[in-house]
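1st attempt posting a full record on here, be nice pls
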Amino acid sequence: MNRIKWFDSVRAFGLFLVLGYHLFHSALPGGFLGVDVFFTFSGFLITALIMEEVRKNGDFAVFKYFKRRVQRILVPMYLSIAFTLPFALLISPDFTVGIAKQLASALSFTANWFNIFSGSSYEAQLMPQLYMHMWSLAVLMQFYVAWGIVCALLSSVSKAIYKKYSSKRLLFLNGAVLTISLLVAIGSYMFLRLQIVSEIGLNDIYFNTLSRLFPFFIGATAGAIWGINSKQDKAIKKRLLSEHKKQKAAAMIIVSVASAAVIVFIFSQYDFNDLFIYKYGFVLTSALTVVMIYCTHGLHILTPVKMKEPAALTIASEMSYDLYLFHWPIYIIVSAVVLNHIAASLTTLAVSISFSALMVYIVEKALFAGNGGKGMKHRRIALAAIGAVTAAGVALGGFVVYKAPAITSIEADFVANYVASDVHDMLLMSQKADYGRRADEMSASLKSLSHEGTDSELGEERQVSEESSQSGGEMQGEAALQGSIDEEGIGAEQGSAEEGIGALQGSADGAGALQGSADGAGALQGSADGAGALQGAMENGDGADGGNQNNNAQPQSTAQGQAQTAQGQGSATQTAQGQGATQTAQGQGATQTAKGQDSVAQTAQGQGSTTLTAQGQGSATQTAQGQGADVGEDGATPPAATTDDIGDDSGDTEPEDRKWPEGVTLIGDSVPLGAKSAMTRTIPNCVVDAEVSRTVPQGRNIMVNLQNKGELREYVVIAVGTNANYDYAEQLLKIVTALEPGHRLIFVTPYDGNNNTNGRLTKETAEWLRGLSWQYDYITIADWNYIVGEQANVLAADKVHMGGSASMELYAQMVLDAVNVASQKPAK
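the predicted structure (as tokens):
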């Protein structure tokens, strides 16, 4: 077949779209559909060539067909991997995690299915894959193989029906090819729409061969209808050449350029996450590509035979496939070294064009040129050089695969944070279990002593315990005697028994408040997570329950947390549910209600109220659930706490049922997860709930669940915008609305340093959040997008996650600063 002029413009246009998408994403976010231009063009060309071969030779030589595919597709692809993989030694090993599986899927042309089953995303990945672009070659090769076999079978069937080659046999074959092409195109598109209705992930739709076949078969349908040198093609040619050739040529150019302009417009307005692309963008791109193919083919007919295409267009077409192979891995490697995006993109183009020219004009010509002629000696030298370079590349590539880590450093940080958190939780559980065991032993011992009646003092204390039990409820059958167990299990409140272990008026299960506490671990009037401190103990504070040898001291709030340990074991006067007045002995345990001693929640230094509730809501006269009152020395009930008694640091007047546990609850995605250890170390009383790939709606659900359980702390930090979507404003406003009064809300602006859709969305999300803080006085912004944007070198290689201790400390300090700013603002 003679070369068809102007076809190269269609191929070059597809290449322009793909390169624009990968290298200049912000300008052409929908350029990933450039592969659909290639798919449609390939479907047309391969079908037209098959039909042309049957018309010319009377049969379809399927083995020669596959040989051509191997030469044109497989060999350049394998060589491109051998040439580019060694350069991965120049960048972070994080980029080579899972490289063996990537290569296996690429070399076997199953990369699209590998990406589906491994959950890899074309847009948002923890680390970009060096050979992610091989998915399209996988789909292309799957089409070539399947369609070649189908056409060979159809050719055999036509020979069986029509023994001799004839126009009827050709018509039968052409009709069969047309019918199957049309049916597969419709079926594939309907399958795509069904996936959308079924809410299958867009990533799975994009990579699925079955939902991506219709561009090929739209092109195949066109190839079967008019093809090349077919009867229909000759009729078209005759009509075009009849008259007004110049006007028709101009019309072909205008229609072709207009079609390309519409495609570019679509690609500039929509990107990977837009449903419009999936519902209409794919099929519209394919249809417009067919129009471009028809127009360029018509232009070939209308222009003089001696007229040649511009050399640049021919070169671009010849190098298009090799340029596609080389540009993506080179871009990943270069952009990891050259931080400036424009410089990285231009460098990628220069290097990729150089490699592609070498491949097309030297390697492929040397490999596939004829065996005779004067250039045979030079060809052998070229082949030897190619073999040596390829062998070196394979060896170095093998070393890259061998040295590839199992997980990225980012994932290692996640694991470390999870492990540290789990170990901490296990230690707490172990301590609580140990306290409970020892308390059970001590309680039994104290009961035995009181029953014997050998000590009058114990007898009095038993009476006090019985009275307290009547007024405050039963504590699983064990009387607790005015005391607590400190962090070492050695409590002191009005004496002790058995080596001072276990305090009088002790605790349920060895860890709860007098007359009960939530889960046996709450402080006086309860504590958040069973770890709150009576009179505001420090995180590691120790000390007894404020008693002394004379048994007449009143518990008072102190900066050192002398009334309660950090684990919140034991309290002086409180019931498990706060029902009823608590009876004291000899006036011990009177509750301080001096102004300013109660706070909304305990501070890091333990300057808090003497009677925090299980939800951190209590004042000096509240019970664990705010239902009862402490009784003082004289048995009288003190007056209810006023707003002044609460001593809110913000100066805000808040209703008692809107007071929350003190401290910080951070709900985040993989970015704060990487900084979790630094935050818990830097920010007092901070709980971090972070998870990889968490979205804004998921973050809202977690916040609401914690809020409903009363476990959401006063300062609520939301850091879930990294995995942003187009409805980020709506979803973030739902968080603002769902937050109940009494909280201070902090939003962390997301950052993504990649030039892709997600990077653009995170930037938009950050800008929107900054504006939100002006609308609500209880919202504070921790501007990670701005802070790290000025020093992105501290991030990991993916330009999103933590890159080491410097970035972790920077993140933690930013959140702490935001909390300090929020403390000067009113609560909701």
